[in-house]
Write a structure and sequence with these properties.
- This protein is α/β, with parallel strands linked by helices.
- It has three domains: about 110 residues, Nucleic acid-binding proteins (OB fold (Dihydrolipoamide Acetyltransferase, E2P), Beta Barrel); about 160 residues, Rossmann fold; about 90 residues, Probable gtpase engc, domain 3 (Ribonucleotide Reductase Protein R1, domain 1), CATH 1.10.40.
- About 35% of the residues lie in helices and about 20% in strands.
- It has eleven helices and 13 strands.
- The radius of gyration is 24 Å and the shape is globular.
- The N and C termini lie far apart (about 75 Å).
Length: about 375
């Protein structure tokens, strides 16, 4: 981490010409971290209060590392620790920091452009924000393991919901030496990720690295995936040096230990910044209805041709989705995955939405009554 910041101080990004100065000139060294005129405009009221802008590169136990025009500082987050877990400061946030003090405090952060959120593993199903102000969500999937298309769809739903553009990177592509076999794997993932680029990459051979570097050079990217997916290795390749620690995956199941334990924001030598994240064991949806719809866009488009606008695609007459299953143009696995994610997302939302909970209970009562009536009819109790 420190070597990355030292490199930043020695880079051209840390120098600027006073003759070209304007209202955002004091923050021009932050351009390497994504600072632009829109951020400068949003920060103007805080500049009038004497605060300085900085990007949060790491958060850890009530404190955070913030990179400012004068370098990196450690700041206390006591003023930005609300009860709502989605409003706590996060890696990727643009913060308003006190210019002096011991300790220094983050007073607030600018409204987020995007936010990658998942549900926690707690019974309360609270949301957890993983990264803020992200342009690209890079989903790393290891080819050392059998592809789990359902998990990829889950990641994609969260990515689309966040406002970032997803990219699926199939790591360890050198483990599939057969070009035809690799092409089939890419095609399988493309089927589960309509409209999303799928890029096979090998940190060993360099395959796909240049293409990935070109994508992440355009803004802020967050690197996501399970432990053992090769995220830290991929980060090191993009950084051009071994900044992130790497551990070998287990031979038994291809899974790795959590090499990365915090979310770190790093400047890439080719442009752009990368947020590396710990491996995610659980990827719970959190109010991601629009994201689910984006992942299964072909099903939602087919649904517009159903006879009933509220068709559940179970046994209704003239169901366009079931017709697509019958003629083979839609895989049954896709429909099952779609149903599963919709149900999960509805349960999560219902826990915080009283009206939706009431609607769900009403639907359950109606379906229960219809089911009981149908059962009685089959038994010959109704005429």
């Amino acid at each position: 981490m420190s070597s990355s910041f030292s490199a930043w101080h020695d880079s051209p990004f840390h120098e600027f010409n006073d003759a070209e100065s304007n209202t955002s000139a004091p923050s021009r060294p932050l351009a390497a971290y994504g600072w632009d005129d829109a951020w400068a405009d949003a920060f103007a009221p805080y500049a009038e209060q004497g605060l300085v802008p900085g990007r949060v590169v790491r958060v850890d136990r009530g404190q955070c590392d913030v990179v400012t025009a004068d370098g990196t500082l450690r700041a206390d987050t006591a003023f930005v620790t609300p009860h709502d877990p989605l409003r706590v400061i996060c890696t990727g946030d643009w913060a308003a920091v006190e210019p002096v003090g011991d300790p220094r405090f983050v007073r607030t952060y600018l409204p987020r452009r995007t936010a990658f959120v998942r549900s926690t593993s707690s019974n309360r199903s609270e949301g957890q924000i993983l990264a803020a102000n992200v342009d690209h969500a890079v989903i790393a999937v290891s080819l050392a393991l059998e592809l789990d298309l359902g998990r990829i769809e889950r990641f994609l739903a969260l990515a689309w919901e966040s406002g970032a553009v997803p990219l699926v990177v199939l790591t360890k592509a050198d483990l599939v030496p057969d070009p035809v076999g690799l092409a089939y794997l890419v095609q399988d993932v493309e089927t589960a990720a309509p409209g999303v680029r799928v890029l096979p990459v090998s940190a060993t051979t360099g395959e796909g690295v240049d293409a990935l570097a070109a994508v992440v050079a355009g803004g802020t990217s967050v690197l996501l995936g399970q432990s053992g997916a090769g995220k830290s290795t991929l980060a090191n390749v993009l950084l051009g040096e071994d900044v992130m620690a790497v551990q070998s995956a287990r031979e038994v199941d291809g899974k790795g230990r959590h090499t990365t334990t915090t979310r770190n924001l790093l400047v890439l030598p080719g442009g752009g910044v990368l947020i590396d994240t710990p491996g995610l064991r659980g990827v719970g949806l959190y109010d991601a209805g629009a994201g689910v719809g984006q992942v299964f866009a072909e099903i939602e488009e087919l649904a517009t041709g159903c006879r009933f606008h509220d068709c559940s695609h179970q046994a209704e007459p003239e169901c366009a989705v079931l017709a697509a299953i019958e003629d083979g143009s839609l895989a049954h696995r896709r429909l099952e995955s779609y149903r599963k994610l919709l149900r999960e997302n509805q349960r999560i939302v219902a826990k915080t939405d009283a009206r939706l909970r009431a609607e769900m209970r009403r639907d359950w009562r109606i379906k229960g009554a219809v089911g009981r009536a149908n059962s009685a009819l089959k038994r010959g109790h109704l005429r």
